[in-house]
């Protein structure tokens, strides 16, 4: 058969029916515009999640274009502690880790905000170790502060769940089949303090063969500082510095505070723990009148779970176990070289004795401010009578400050110290109160001159500026050793150095 070769002639558009005519130039432009809009919409969504999806590249884009944490366009100078993360956040959109859950873990956190914060990190780690489904933690409402806030009032629940879904399955509430109405019973217990992996694997995990739900009714310091695998230690950091994000309202107001301070220049966050609850709990009455000392003693007896009742204040102070008074803090700041025009932000609740007790500090440093003096009362209206939410604001400002100086090494001081180390070893002056009390008394009674006092204060704090150091271990004395959340060494060091572990 002969195959004919035919020449294909171009078709003439004017002879085609209208339905077969090619797109006009206007139609092509319309398609291009729609495509651009679609691409930019996708880009904005990526930028909104850039901090976690592609940390290094997208965070740089966020800074360039001025996008906030929520993806909204903001002032390019807008400050946020999230932009200062020295270590990129782990991706939040990985696939969930596939495993068979061994049961449900409920936890009731006890204490103040930062004590509960550390406990939440520990409980996520325990749930990961034991392959448990964690119920969103319950916060303490019966402590001294009597804060009615729930987890969702302080932290971003959705972010908390999503950012950890490749590690731990977290649910907002127990399934109905495990409710009391369904006849289900959970086993309630407090884990043993400062416990390691072996305790949870050998003592706690077997309980889930009998009880599908276990409720830890106390969670403070229930996981060891040391002796855990590097993987678990890094998970604690991931929870603390990436998953536990405050609500958008708290973040926005905290960043507003930082911006107000930044406009005035660099600033010092002074965590002045001269508050009624701390003084009563510790038995420290330095600077108080006899009437005030008696009031603090009565308060200590009013709380049965505060075990120590009869306390000699002078002995506590000499041992360095008391928060510095505002007067002592002023003298120490001057000795450290801070000038009269230093901007100081007081990160604390109500100072015992009110404004009268702050006169010496304000006299030495006139630019001393608090959130109540920087913000309009309407800004704080939503947070009033919610001590944990107010503490969250101070936490954000303390982490974002140029220098952080705590006058007592309580939970907030330790957790902020660790966060600042994680952000790249931002300067934190960790006061040696035992040495300072000795020097303050010597200067007060004229034993040493001001110049010698200044030299001694500087020498005592040369290695107490928040530098990278191995965490100190005290065998069989976990309460006395360095706290993991103050110095999360495994999350800061290189792999080879981490393998050597913490050391004394």
From TrEMBL:
Transmembrane segments: 26-48
An example Gene Ontology molecular-function term: glycosyltransferase activity
Transmembrane is among the record's keywords: yes
UniProt KW keywords: Carbohydrate metabolism, Fucose metabolism, Glycoprotein, Glycosyltransferase, Membrane, Signal-anchor, Transferase, Transmembrane, Transmembrane helix
Pfam families: O-FucT (PF10250)
A GO-annotated cellular component: chloroplast
UniProt-listed GO biological process terms: fucose metabolic process
Pathway involvement of the protein, from the record: Glycan metabolism
Membrane topology according to the record: Single-pass type II membrane protein
Cellular location(s): Membrane
Claim: DNA-binding is one of the keywords in the record: no
Family: Belongs to the glycosyltransferase GT106 family.
Name of the protein in its database record: O-fucosyltransferase family protein
């Amino acid at each position: 058969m002969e195959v004919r070769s035919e020449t294909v002639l171009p078709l003439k558009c004017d002879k085609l029916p209208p339905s077969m005519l090619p797109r006009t130039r206007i139609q092509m432009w319309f398609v291009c515009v729609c495509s651009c809009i679609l691409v930019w919409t996708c880009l904005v969504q990526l930028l909104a999640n850039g901090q976690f999806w592609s940390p290094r590249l997208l965070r740089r884009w966020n800074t360039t274009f001025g996008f906030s944490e929520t993806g909204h366009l903001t002032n390019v100078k807008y400050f946020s502690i999230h932009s200062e993360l020295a270590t990129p956040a782990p991706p939040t959109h990985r696939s969930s880790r596939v495993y068979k859950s061994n049961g449900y873990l409920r936890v009731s956190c006890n204490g103040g905000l930062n004590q509960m914060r550390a406990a939440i990190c520990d409980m996520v780690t325990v749930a990961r170790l034991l392959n448990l489904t964690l119920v969103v933690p319950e916060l303490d409402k019966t402590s001294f502060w009597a804060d009615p806030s729930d987890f969702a009032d302080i932290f971003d629940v959705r972010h908390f769940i999503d950012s950890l879904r490749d590690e731990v399955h977290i649910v907002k509430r127990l399934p109905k089949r495990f409710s009391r109405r369904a006849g289900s019973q959970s086993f309630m217990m407090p884990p043993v303090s400062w416990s390691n992996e072996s305790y949870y694997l050998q003592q706690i995990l077997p309980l889930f063969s009998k009880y599908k739900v276990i409720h830890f009714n106390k969670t403070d310091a229930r996981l060891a500082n040391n002796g855990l695998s590097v993987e678990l230690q890094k998970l604690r950091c991931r929870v603390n510095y990436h998953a536990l994000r405050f609500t958008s309202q708290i973040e926005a107001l905290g960043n507003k505070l930082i911006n107000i301070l930044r406009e005035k220049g660099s600033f010092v966050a002074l965590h002045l723990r001269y508050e009624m609850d701390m003084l009563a709990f510790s038995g420290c009455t330095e600077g108080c009148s006899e009437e005030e000392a008696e009031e603090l003693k009565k308060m200590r007896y009013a709380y049965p779970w505060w075990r120590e009742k009869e306390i000699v204040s002078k002995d506590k102070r000499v041992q360095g176990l008391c928060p510095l008074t505002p007067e002592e803090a002023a003298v120490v700041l001057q000795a450290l070289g801070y000038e009269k025009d230093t901007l100081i932000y007081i990160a604390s609740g109500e100072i015992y004795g009110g404004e009268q007790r702050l006169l010496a500090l304000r006299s030495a440093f006139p630019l001393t401010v608090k959130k109540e003096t920087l913000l309009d009362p309407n800004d704080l209206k939503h947070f009033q009578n919610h001590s944990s939410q107010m503490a969250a604001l101070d936490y954000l400002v303390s982490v974002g400050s140029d220098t952080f100086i705590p006058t007592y090494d309580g939970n907030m001081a330790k957790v902020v110290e660790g966060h600042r180390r994680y952000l790249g070893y931002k300067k934190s002056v960790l006061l040696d109160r035992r040495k300072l009390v000795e020097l303050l008394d010597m200067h007060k009674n004229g034993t040493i001159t001001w110049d010698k006092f200044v030299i001694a204060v500087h020498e005592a704090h040369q290695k107490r500026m928040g530098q990278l150091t191995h965490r100190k271990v005290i065998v069989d004395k976990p309460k006395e050793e360095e706290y993991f959340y103050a110095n999360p060494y495994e999350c800061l060091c290189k792999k080879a150095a981490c393998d050597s572990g913490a050391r004394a």
